[in-house]
Amino acid sequence: MTQALRFVLTQFCAMAIAALVVGLMAWPAIIWASLTAGLSFSAALRWHDGQWWRYIHLVFPFAVLLALLSPVDPRWYLAALLVSWMVFGGVLRNRVPLYLSNTQALEQLAKQVPAGARLLDLGAGTGTVLAWFVRYRPDVQADGIEFSWLPWLFGRLRLARSNAGWHHGDAFAADLAAYDVVYAYLSPEPMSLLWEKAQKEMRPGSLLISNSFDIPNAPPARICDIGDWKGSRLLVWKI
Fold it and tell me: Which of 3, 136, 168, 171 has the smallest count of CB within 10 Å of its CB?
């Protein structure tokens, strides 16, 4: 069961129990939100791996209550939904949120990329990786593909005057055969699928590099510590 589905089920059950109790006791809405938050937080202590999920459970009922009580035009909620879809559309398709590579990660990545290589950034976000390589490693032909429209548009404007290849589309539909290095900062969910795709399409000797997320049952050839506050790593596989 995915973390997102656990979140939905936990919240639904907690809200149902809280609504029943509040209905019987005729308590105000703030008691309903507090009871829901307590129940869902307690369930999250057992169900969820990441500690931050617990605090999402704790805050979410109060956010719902605030939204219900606020005199906000419903069209603002629609606008927020559309913007969220334009930024995080990849979550719905491949369960890949928007992650941006920091400077430490890019410096480590550059050390792994051979001179004159052709690099593909899968799920390229706003073009951060490509912009960095254009500036500091012009010997590398850097291409990127991004599915979500708003980050892609930002990257298009950002890279308009460069020779980087900037594409809109599904990262898992891209052909990896032409690239010496494929870089991915995705999520744990699609890594097995990415590994299968890389083994089928990438040439022998080429490199698959993942920021932070490993591949089940496929130990990397080497691991490079990025040295940031998140304890991030680059995991490198040689095809």
Answer: 136
Count of CB atoms within 10 A of residue 101's CB?
A: 22
158-199: per-residue pLDDT in tens?
Answer: 999 999 999 999 999 999 999 999 999 998 989 999 999 999
Mean pLDDT score across all residues of the chain: 86
pTM score over 0.90: no
How far is residue 14's CA from residue 136's CA, in Å, rounded to a whole number? 52
- Cβ–Cβ under 8 Å, residues 56 and 3: no
**Residue 192 phi, psi dihedral angles, 5° rounding:** -65, -40
CA dist 64 and 163 (Å) reads: 46
In the chain, what are the domains? 3-71 (no CATH), 103-238 (3.40.50.150)
CA 148 – CA 150 distance, rounded (Å): 6
DSSP state of 114: P
Question: Tokens standing for 19?
Answer: 């609504």
